[in-house]
Amino acid sequence: MQDAIIYLDSNSSMGLQNQIRQKLVDGILSGAFPPGMKLPSSRKLAQQLAVARNTVVAAYHQLIADGYLISRQRSGIFVNEQILESRVGHSGRGSVAAQAESAAWARRVRSLPARWREVHDQPNWRYYPYPFIDGKFDQTLFPLAEWREANRLALSVADVNEWSTGRGDSDDPKLIEEIRTKILTRRGIQAHADEILVTMGTQNSLYLVSQMLADTATTFAVEEPGNYEIRQLLQMRGADVVTQPVDEDGLVVDDRLCNANVVYVTPSHQIPTAVAMSLERRRELLDAASAHDFLVVEDDYECETNYMDHPLPALRSMDAGGRVIYVASLSKALAPGIRLGFIVANADFIRRARQVRRKILNHPPLNNQRTMAYFLSLGHYDSLMLRLGRIFRERRVALQRALNNVRGVPMEISPEVGGTTYWVRTPNDFDVANLIRQSEQHGILVEPVEHYYSIRENAENCIRMGVTSIPVERIRPGVERLVGLIREIVKGKVEHLPTSTGRWLRGDELRRAMLNATVLYREVHGAPCTIEHLENGVMTGRRGYANEDSDSGRWRVEGDIFYRKWDRWVYGEEKGYYIVIDGDKIKYFNSDKQIVDSAYIRLADDLPEAVG
Amino acid sequence: MQDAIIYLDSNSSMGLQNQIRQKLVDGILSGAFPPGMKLPSSRKLAQQLAVARNTVVAAYHQLIADGYLISRQRSGIFVNEQILESRVGHSGRGSVAAQAESAAWARRVRSLPARWREVHDQPNWRYYPYPFIDGKFDQTLFPLAEWREANRLALSVADVNEWSTGRGDSDDPKLIEEIRTKILTRRGIQAHADEILVTMGTQNSLYLVSQMLADTATTFAVEEPGNYEIRQLLQMRGADVVTQPVDEDGLVVDDRLCNANVVYVTPSHQIPTAVAMSLERRRELLDAASAHDFLVVEDDYECETNYMDHPLPALRSMDAGGRVIYVASLSKALAPGIRLGFIVANADFIRRARQVRRKILNHPPLNNQRTMAYFLSLGHYDSLMLRLGRIFRERRVALQRALNNVRGVPMEISPEVGGTTYWVRTPNDFDVANLIRQSEQHGILVEPVEHYYSIRENAENCIRMGVTSIPVERIRPGVERLVGLIREIVKGKVEHLPTSTGRWLRGDELRRAMLNATVLYREVHGAPCTIEHLENGVMTGRRGYANEDSDSGRWRVEGDIFYRKWDRWVYGEEKGYYIVIDGDKIKYFNSDKQIVDSAYIRLADDLPEAVG
Predict the structure, then answer these.
(1) Is ipTM beyond 0.90?
(2) Is B367's CB within 8 Å of A338's CB?
(3) Interchain pair B30, A22: CB under 8 A
(4) How do the domains of chain A map onto residue ranges?
(5) Whole-structure pTM over 0.95, yes or no?
(6) pLDDT tens digits along A428-482
(7) Whole-angstrom distance, CA of residue A554 vs CA of residue A574
(8) Strands (E), B209-283
(9) CATH number of A385-489
(10) A1-109 is classed in which CATH architecture?
């Protein structure tokens, strides 16, 4: 019998499936199993290794999901040709001598998985009028005078003498002190100076963490959907990445986490859904970490702009066992071009991380560290974050209001949790990809969500909309255009007049039906809204779980159209609809006779028998 | 028979020795072969794998040299307990529950070879009066006004709008253009914008290069002695590192390079010996690269301060085949705290390097990139480099002069090649480690050299002295103290009076002998120097290969001591010596009767018969 392509180690403490997986990954990354190589069938390899066939099948499936292998129908399983991107470049070239010569190095480039390139980005987002994409920076908010002041101080002779020379592997002690006293205290974290490491931002922090904690023998649990950057970094290290679902309380904590060595989590605002992890869930996660002996990487995403949202304490602040590695940005909201962030963890971990950072880049630039230290010590950072918190909250409310008021297809957003993004759900049969394409052509950028899923086919039918980069006055027109597009897309596919179900009310019948009727809405983010249509053409509305907000307005019927106008809601503008009553539901149709909304209705009297 | 711990792949294109090496490294780094594990004897493993025993022995030896394995006499070969530094930290702790808890993560830290910590560094060098160590920064030379000006421009509203936001993975196009037109042209390099990548300095460039080009299947040739940073980075990647000697023309180019995939070289000023690679050797290296299909990484060390030294063109400028990856610093001489450097290579390579950089840190800070762009465009960088070139040359000459004039034991330095360091050879039996220790206690820092050797036992008996961080007026007193220490160390161990060989001349006999005698020196850097002792107490000297310099002075004999005083040389100071003539050699002894120097002498007349 032919030799097996891998061998198992009978003394290994790893399970068989993990051993198979690890050895195949090692072989692929080292080039021993070249791209395009056909693997033995699961049956054959199982025979050779004397293991159950299911074990091999499971290992193969996992490697297919991770992109190392691909399955070609009716021909077998192969090493993914694109797993080492270099090979693509090389094999894609002609064999002309000059090209071969200049591409001599290309064959030698190692370990750049092809799927890195698939992530959606919009380098030219600035040229779009309605950029609802997250993580981009609104330069009009940059505190120029304050940054200049901090910068001028950092360029004093005494300061230059301190930062101009390298510091080996250490950071600016002034910046460390400011992080310790001004930023961490707000997150409830007490840390010594030797528990803090300055980095080149969160990407760099996660890179360091992945270099230190991940290898082919490590299992990392990540959120699904979740941050694709960490998934890619773990892929580079060949780690076993398992996904764990997220619900309305954040990462689900259950037995599936038992086998993880490290759990990556974004508790403040989950990436990408913006859900906040509940306090109880946080406690469960830390208890599980202790019980099952895993570490937690806490990426405190958007902690910077949380200042007005009374966020829950960081996991690191609740962490008695020293198991949490806390990662945060310093410059994302200030100016991403500056690239500063930090890690808080056990002093011993930080010492080792410092050694790794030393090998990668020595240390983040000390002139920027010193400038940031002054920016913090002068209180400019705090006031910037307060200001950004106010501005982003205003924008976020504007976006919610716009989505709530001009709905085209039923859409849902996550409940109010602060942050700067909304995770917008659409019906399952709605063609989101088409919407994103068309929006872009109409100057509207919204973010697709598949790349947040480890298996793209699992992606929910959602878009992600953020407000960090769009001025507040563009939000409503942007949403209105977006909804206009949605209406175009669904034209003819959604319910329209005349309708087969329910009764289209006209004229006096419509007026009589609406009189004293109560309408019960769900707003876009799930909160209830109750509208009463009174006798004198007056309308009252209460909304929120505790009727936090109310408004009054006027309603009337003219011809076959029901008009309503709130004093404040819906921008105080009058809207007209055709109305259909279908059992206990009311359906609103626009002038194109397309359905645009629906709600529950309680009529004052039963409808009379239908005419005809 | 027991199972082998590794298996060979009969289809592999790798040699047997390399396969064994690679599989052992993979096993060690993945933790499959834990620290302290005893390996099978070479005989046994050879039997199990059915290969020649020598093959296993060679693989083991290589891994011992790389620090993966250690050999314990009479007990066998083991996985080095310190190879994963984390294990040291872990096993070194007590088993108290709280400690075990807080150290939970420690077991999980991956791949930090212990030897990283062995490299000599002097974080407090600034507090020493005589810091003759290289690579440290003299902050008094920082061009404060010019940097402030560039910085102010980079903080204009228009500029801030450009740099404050992130740029995805791209660099500041203004900086790229300045590098292209102002820096590369001086090195003879023509490059397009897409052939340049900005990095966080040379360490970061080499990290990127090692991530891209090195893995366990790659052979890297490096200089011996050579840059330890690249060696460590390659170790991290598990690459096969082979060393290649350096002679007075730089890296030796011979058949040993045939099997390399990549050759790392420092042609401008070899690290650490400061030798410049000759033009012919450069051509040979490029020819070999083409013939044997390897890449060249050119680390243009100290290119920044080369402005006055008419350096040879960069390898990259002579590289028709696109095989050279050029690496240089932008901030080492300006202010290391800023951390900027760049890579020039084939556009395809740069594109991939950009992807890797994106994963590591996105991009170097754009505010610093823009400031540096202005600093260059205003011409400040050029004038700084000219100024530094002048200052460092002055210091270098002062160091050479000091070493030449106050010699304690015979020392040699490399010939004049520019740069800012000297590689100082001492006799083989001299205890250099003791000198370095004692110097430090006396406020003098000189650099040991063992860490530049892949096998420390091979280190020559040298010290390395640099001038970037010591003001010119401290050089002579520093060298004099150093030589004083050397004299203390060798006291009683070197020749002293009365001497067993040669004849100690006194009084009139001494005067007669010196009259019309010609003394032929070798200066410390190897150049000849001829001194003639004329009748009227006049002395003339010519030095250099073409008598580039001459001086005159006075000599006299008083009692048993020969005095000489040059007009300019030896700082114009009078020195007195006891003199011994031994055949055609003259030996100079100080007032402690220790030998301090020797030279060839041509006497006007034979010495008369010895008296008694």
Answers:
(1) no
(2) yes
(3) yes
(4) 1-109, 144-378, 385-489, 497-602
(5) no
(6) 888 899 999 999 999 999 999 988 998 877 888 899 999 988 999 999 999 999 9
(7) 9
(8) 219-224, 240-247, 250-251, 262-265
(9) 3.90.1150.10
(10) Orthogonal Bundle (1.10)
